[in-house]
Design a protein that fits this description.
Protein name: Formate dehydrogenase gamma subunit
Keywords: 2Fe-2S, Iron, Iron-sulfur, Metal-binding
Bound molecules: FE2/S2 (inorganic) cluster
Number of strands: 4
Number of helices: 7
Number of domains: 2
CATH topology of the largest domain: Glutaredoxin
CATH architecture of the largest domain: 3-Layer(aba) Sandwich
Order of helices and strands: HHHHEHHEEEH
Helix content: 40-55%
Binding site for [2Fe-2S] cluster: 82, 87, 123, 127
Strand order of the largest sheet: 2-1-3-4
GO molecular function: 2 iron, 2 sulfur cluster binding; metal ion binding; oxidoreductase activity
Radius of gyration: 17 Å
Cofactor: [2Fe-2S] cluster
Structural class: alpha+beta
Largest sheet: 4 strands, mixed
């Protein structure tokens, strides 16, 4: 069973009003929505825009600019592979291709059986042990093909 709530306009309004008094409330609101619903539903955009007196385009622009915000519910496991500079220089692109093949899912997507979401991330602060990943919130350094295979076995269980 999902640990997230189902989307509702009322709950969105409630979360918006929790942060509306802050200076620069949009990012905290989007994080709160993702925490509550597991993603930022498209249907939340007009509600936020109305409550904050912004255009839908402004809200949509922020939601799509930040890679942290999901546009659809995530799978049961979330594998994030770092694509920032240090990891690039240590060959993360080849590992990403390997992970896509091994997990049967393209970067940015969720497998058809809902088991795993594969997402890019931009620096985990683990550059010294690049290439790096985060698996369900756990940091993993010194990634290689064997480590990707082990992660795949773990998330497919
Ligand atoms: S660049 Fe990948 S962990 Fe810093």
């Amino acid at each position: 069973m999902s640990r997230h709530e189902s989307f509702s306009v009322e709950r969105t309004r409630e979360l918006v009003s929790d942060f509306a008094g802050l200076e620069g409330p949009l990012l905290p609101i989007l994080h709160a929505l993702q925490e509550a619903f597991g993603f930022v539903p498209e249907a939340a955009v007009p509600v936020i825009a109305q409550e904050l007196n912004l255009t839908r385009a402004e809200v949509h622009g922020v939601v799509t600019f930040y890679h942290d915000f999901r546009h659809a519910p995530a799978g049961r496991h979330v594998v994030k592979l770092c694509r920032a500079e240090a990891c690039q220089s240590m060959g993360c692109d080849d590992l990403i291709a390997h992970a896509e093949r091994r997990l049967g899912v393209a970067m940015g997507e969720t497998s058809a059986d809902g088991a795993v979401t594969l997402e890019p991330i931009y620096c985990l602060g683990l550059c010294a042990t690049a290439p790096s990943a985060m698996v369900d919130g756990r940091l993993v350094g010194r990634l290689d093909a064997a480590a990707i295979d082990a992660i795949a076995t773990e998330v497919e269980r």
